[in-house]
Amino acid sequence: MTYCVGLLLHKGLVMVGDTRTNAGVDNIATFRKLQIFEVPGERVIAIATAGNLAVTQAVVNHMLEGLPGTDGEIQTLYTVPSMFEMAQFAGRAVRTVRERDAEALAQDGNGFDCALLVAGQIGERRLRLFMVYRAGNFLESTEDTPFLQIGEHKYGKPIIDRSVTFHTPLEEALKIALISMDSTIRSNLAVGMPLDAMVLPRDALACTVNVRITESDPYFGHVRDSWSNALREAHLSIPNPPYGY
Amino acid sequence: MTYCVGLLLHKGLVMVGDTRTNAGVDNIATFRKLQIFEVPGERVIAIATAGNLAVTQAVVNHMLEGLPGTDGEIQTLYTVPSMFEMAQFAGRAVRTVRERDAEALAQDGNGFDCALLVAGQIGERRLRLFMVYRAGNFLESTEDTPFLQIGEHKYGKPIIDRSVTFHTPLEEALKIALISMDSTIRSNLAVGMPLDAMVLPRDALACTVNVRITESDPYFGHVRDSWSNALREAHLSIPNPPYGY
Prior knowledge:
alpha+beta, Glutamine Phosphoribosylpyrophosphate, subunit 1, domain 1, globular, UCP009120_prtse (chains A, B), Peptidase (chains A, B)
């Protein structure tokens, strides 16, 4: 399992991903789900992946090693000229792996399973955030719905639903994304530490945060404890129900 | 969809269920999911249901109209002598419907889908809470895990995970269950008002709360607003992340 969230806000992009993979509950490992490809001043591309690890690794490899573009020229994520084309390019990478592996996976009783968040900015073009489905199609985050999630999205969604708007400051959004991640980790063993987090201000073309957050990270520990205490105080501050005979 | 939660605590039982059913998003209706069968002083049985409404209605009907027990005698939920036998009885009702309907449902492309919470107390026997699966098997809530959920359980689980222990007072547990329900309603359109809620103190053999909570209920409105505000204050009270260059 996996949980990754991307928030495309007025001031920029925030992304957080966990690192736990599992094949059953008895085969657990750590793999980076959120990968940042940064050419400072030219482009910053963030790719978060969920689903079958063999599939998602192959998809990212195709994006790095290159695939033919619509004109037959080989493109990589360092040469694709716009984020809209990047989303299509990621979709083609998904379809390339699908054509190669889906039938064999099905014969083995497994579905072809992957989802990607593809976000970033290229030159003076717009900062954008897309979610690419396993069919290779995609949708885009907008001002009305400024975040997208992949993987185990439900446990961590209520806090984002209630707390984030398009105008939430980046630092606050990162904090909320970490709270959302903590809620998910507590409820689903298949999502786990360490975390990877990034912040990319709009038009900066360089990350201001690109960090691995481990179990011993003091700030994340503080978030966990503070949030638990604050939730407890929050529900204690609400009076008990008046129902009853 | 549905969300129902049952909490079996030191002092008694709390159950809350929503009432929304949907066949697709364009066919939405209101049906009671949490049903209370009370013979004051003798037994109180609470049944919450999730899944295919035709299946769950048939299951509850079989429990009311009667099914042969292990000795061939017809039993109903008013005659089953213990809660352990009640869970088995509910399982037999599920299997009866399954034998009748599962093949036809499968031919129509639908799985046989249902889950029940079966809880209550009979005479001087223990107050108990069971979850009955669609296969008719079941598990029981224990002191370590004093709550069980059916239906859309993920959105509302973090608040219960963090706030409820076996020793949480009943009124507080009802409040937390309502917060859990509110979180779910906000994130999933297929879970909706009104709600049904009950509280059954241990050894009381009569509910102290058995209430329908509508959209206009002032307490539930207060819970919604207070919780939103409290969450906002809670995350604002945590400092912003120290990461960054």
